[in-house]
């Protein structure tokens, strides 16, 4: 490139507006198709772990017993795989990106406690039928053991 072409380009750039936006001072334009951060409606989550198994960057961790859902926002690549594979559709993508930070942290969401299991109340007739079936099974096992010992 000759010095003349370089000088022409340099002088032309002095009179053109900048090609980039001044980000902190002017907010960026958010489009509907932008993928920002993953949001979880933790009250609808069943902690099945489908989002964790389908995450290509292993950014999501689900603990079913502790009922926790963790995401490492800086490991997430915003691919939307977790959102498309969620059976309860409790995950969604926000258009807002994760704010810059000096350290990598995990966001931990604690789910509500599991609903109590219904108590089964047996009638006396049902209890007697269960006891009789258990006694019959024990007698059959004892007879099988005796016939095996005699053979």
Description:
- The chain is an alpha+beta fold.
- It has two domains: 32-118, Alpha-Beta Plaits; 120-151.
- It contains four helices and five strands.
- The chain has helices spanning 3-14, 50-54, 81-85, 124-150; strands at 38-40, 60-63, 68-72, 91-93, 106-110.
- Strand 2 and strand 3 (68-72) form a beta hairpin.
- The chain is elongated.
- The protein starts with a helix and ends with a helix.
Low-confidence segments: none
CATH topology of the largest domain: Alpha-Beta Plaits
**Class from helix and strand fractions:** alpha+beta
Q: Using the alpha-carbon principal axes, give the shape.
A: elongated
Defining traits:
151 residues, alpha+beta, Alpha-Beta Plaits, three-stranded antiparallel sheet, two-stranded antiparallel sheet, 4 helices, 32% helix, 13% strand
Gist of the model:
With 151 residues, the protein is of the alpha+beta class. It is built from 4 helices and 5 strands. It has 2 domains: 32-118, Alpha-Beta Plaits, CATH 3.30.70.3270; 120-151.
């Amino acid at each position: 490139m000759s010095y003349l072409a370089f000088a022409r380009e340099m002088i032309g750039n002095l009179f053109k507006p900048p090609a980039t936006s001044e980000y902190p001072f002017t907010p960026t334009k958010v489009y509907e198709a932008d993928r920002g951060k993953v949001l979880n409606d933790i009250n609808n989550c069943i902690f099945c772990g489908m989002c964790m198994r389908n995450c290509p960057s292993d950014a999501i961790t689900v603990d079913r017993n502790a009922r926790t859902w963790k995401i490492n926002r800086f490991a997430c690549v915003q691919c939307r795989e977790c959102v498309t594979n969620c059976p309860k559709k409790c995950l969604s993508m926000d258009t807002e990106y994760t704010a810059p930070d000096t350290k990598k942290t995990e966001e931990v969401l604690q789910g509500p406690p599991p609903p109590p299991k219904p108590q089964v109340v047996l009638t006396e007739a049902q209890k007697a039928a269960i006891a009789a079936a258990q006694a019959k099974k024990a007698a059959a096992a004892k007879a099988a053991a005796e016939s095996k010992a005699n053979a």
